[in-house]
Amino acid sequence: MMGVPRPRIGILGDGQLGRMLTLAALPLGLDVRIVSSGSAASTCPFLGRRPPLDGDDPQQLDALARAVDVVTVESENVRLDWLEALAARVTVLPSPAAVGVAQDRVREKEALQAHGIATAQWRQVDDAPGLHGAVRDLGFPLVLKTRRFGYDGKGQRWLRAEADVAAVPESFLARGLIAEAAVPFTRELSLVCTRSGAGDVAFWPLVENVHRGGILVRTEAPARDVAPPVEAALRAAVARMLDGWSYVGTFALELFDTPTGVVANEMAPRVHNTGHWTQAGTATCQFANHVRAVAGLPIDACAEVAPTVMLNVIGGVPDARALLAIPGVSLHLYGKEPRPGRKLGHVNVLLDRAGAQGLASAGALVDTALRLAEEPGDPPT
Q: What's the pLDDT tens digit per position in 200-215?
């Protein structure tokens, strides 16, 4: 009898996403090698401490390529030349080309528009004349974003008047920017899916997200009041784009819902915070489907969905005993040291079991931990 293939998977990054990818691979008996990012915030101490990868060292790349059959990433914020050098030695999924598009907001906007996915009006900004041209074309308010390596609201400046334009530092301009017109949205949405090497695409439903200070605090799945033709058209456009890249793995698209339709904000070529609810609300979560895809295994269509709310644990850890006493609640902690503004974990609430009261209680516990973390002085003992 033929057994299940067991490719060796290398994961670049040992943060919470790498941790949850690893945990999803274990039931399949897959051999996972976590490659440290070098951050002190590793969430995978159970795998042992390893020295971080130096992708500029060909010998280290050769050693990694010999140790695994496929390499994947927990974040797009990885040096593209390292991925390309690895891809010359071993399979990298998703491909460096796809990751490269998501790393660059200009290329990202061009790719979305080429596949009929609406975006905010935007202009590339490389210098002061380009900035003034963007202000002339887009008007106020607009947001300046670094073309590369921004997340959770980092690398952004809002411009609402000429005084804000004059205050933009030369050092910020020199980083290479994109200017985007403000989008008058009514809510934020996201679409998460996984594409297999065979070309199958499994979509989870659109979800509604709430951010505070640029950081996700809540995801509600599925999003309410989404017209089926709108979601179907969006899924078809995303599938075409991923087909064009021969994309393999989980993919996320953040969106704005506006009175005239949905507008794409940004993409992520990886598992995504707004997909964490799938650990409770579907039979196969985004992490398991990603691992299946990069391992060459069939992915799950994810057709059955239980209404779920995901709450990010930020800054401080809530009372786990009180949380877990609520029916339908699961708690995922990442093993990080608490500090204000830091994602420490998340809570999934199955609404059919917890009900409105259970959701409110879970939210209050998470909010209390956040508030205590933000207050000056030592936390209560």
A: 999 999 999 999 988 9
What DSSP string describes 251-301?
Answer: EEEEEEEETTEEEEEEEESS--GGGTTHHHHBSS-HHHHHHHHHTTPPPP-
Tokens of 221: 């799945």
Question: Both tokens of residue 58?
Answer: 């060909």
Cβ neighbours for 39, distance < 8 A, ≥ 6 positions apart: 14, 15
225 burial type by CB count under 10 A (0-12 exposed, 13-18 middle, 19+ buried): exposed
Q: What number of other Cβ atoms are within 10 A of residue 38's Cβ?
A: 11
Three-class SS state of 371? helix
pLDDT tens for each residue of 341-356: 999 999 999 999 999 9
The residue assigned the tokens 């605090």 is 217
pLDDT at 50: 62
**Which domains does the chain carry?**
8-103 (3.40.50.20), 121-181 (3.30.1490.20), 187-374 (3.30.470.20)
Copy the structure tokens of residue 255: 């969106």
Q: Which of 289, 100, 82 is nearest to 193 (CA)?
A: 289
Q: Are 43 and 21 a contacting pair, CB within 8 Å?
A: no
d(CA 381, CA 373): 13
Helix (H) or strand (E) segment spanning residue 208: strand 207-212
Q: Answer yes or no: are the C-beta atoms of 342 and 374 closer than 8 Å.
A: no
pLDDT of residue 56: 85
**Residue 21 to residue 11: CA distance in whole angstroms:** 8
Nearest to 220 by CA among 151, 93, 306: 306
Estimate the share of the chain in helix, then strand, then coil, as percent rounded to the nearest 5.
35, 25, 40
pLDDT grade for 250, boundaries at 50, 70 and 90: very high
Residue 54, token pair as written in the block: 């130096």
Paired tokens of 156: 């952004």
pLDDT > 70? residue 377: no
Q: Report the amino acid identity of residue 270.
A: R
Residues 6+ apart with CB under 8 A from 354: 326, 327, 328, 329, 362
Of the candidates 334, 346, 291, 373, the residue with the CA atom closest to the CA atom of residue 42: 334
Amino acid identity at 238: V
DSSP state, residue 29:
T
